[in-house]
Design goal:
The chain is α/β, with parallel strands linked by helices. The protein has two domains: 177 residues, Rossmann fold (3-Layer(aba) Sandwich); 68 residues, no CATH class. It is 35% helix and 27% strand. It contains ten helices and ten strands. The strands form two sheets. The protein has a six-stranded mixed sheet, with helices on both faces. α3 packs parallel to α6. The radius of gyration is 18 Å and the shape is globular.
Length: 254
């Protein structure tokens, strides 16, 4: 059943956020959204619409791209985190899977996963427990655990990237274009796993996607960005039924 963020307890609130790159390029213009506790929210938009910037502003990684939140605020778990240290956000349970996966190709699959679990310096026993949980959700990674990640497929690397983020045991996971460059069957498998994590672990997710059909199939609520602004928002099932969505998505609406 579709659920509005106003009904669910807000875990994340992005309030009227404005982002500039290099103090001259306006990327986001008053973007507001929220993610409820235990909710999967889709952030839809064509290339350049501002979806990646929204995620990076939330996780404070936008500064690495010479960006800055110049207006608005971001609130996570009731506490303002605008401009917070990204490492502290991971410790607080907010993790991001970047666009393009960014795996360490010269390390094994298991080494890549372990890197994601070192925040907070857990014991080896705890790390092993987390690894087993990841392998339970991604059985293919168990089979590939000793293989160099550079010799795995794009879909397997996406699983590694997601698993690495899950090793920090986040409460909120941000994913940037998880379907990019992957075969439809692999995309379906990844989204099925995300849905299981949402359902079984209560993991909250904010997923930026250009593949609107897969995103709306699995999300409960969705926002559509166009030219750095929220153009539409509503329950995913409702948005999927709107004829105008394709126009907004393609940037054709006035």
């Amino acid at each position: 059943m579709s659920q509005s963020p106003e009904i669910a307890a807000p875990l994340l609130r992005v309030e009227q956020v404005e982002v500039f790159y290099e103090q001259s390029i306006l990327a986001l213009r008053g973007v507001s959204l929220q993610v409820g506790q235990g909710q999967m929210v889709a952030l839809l938009g064509a290339n350049g619409a501002g979806t990646s910037t929204t995620l990076q502003a939330t996780s404070s990684l936008v500064r690495a791209e010479r960006g800055e939140v110049t207006q608005g605020r971001i609130v996570y778990q009731g506490r303002e985190i605008t401009g917070a240290d990204p490492a502290n956000l991971v410790l607080a349970g907010l993790a991001q899977v970047l666009e393009g996966r960014h795996c360490f190709s010269h390390l094994s699959v298991e080494q890549n996963l372990l890197i994601g679990g070192f925040a907070g310096r857990p014991s080896r026993k705890v790390l092993n427990q987390r690894l087993e949980r990841i392998y339970g959700y991604f059985p293919r990674l168990r089979l590939l655990r000793k293989r160099l990640t550079g010799y795995t497929s794009g879909g397997e690397q996406q699983m590694v990237a997601i698993g690495r983020a899950l090793m920090s045991e986040p409460q909120l996971l941000l994913l940037d274009e998880p379907s990019m460059g992957l075969a439809p069957q692999v995309v379906e498998e990844i989204f099925e796993t995300l849905a299981r994590l949402n359902r079984e672990q209560g993991l909250s997710l904010l997923v930026a996607e250009q593949n609107i059909n897969i995103a709306l199939d699995y999300a409960q609520y969705a926002y559509v960005l166009e030219n750095g602004q929220v153009a539409q928002a509503g329950p995913a099932a409702e948005l999927a039924g709107r004829e105008q969505l394709q126009n907004y998505y393609l940037g054709a609406a006035g």
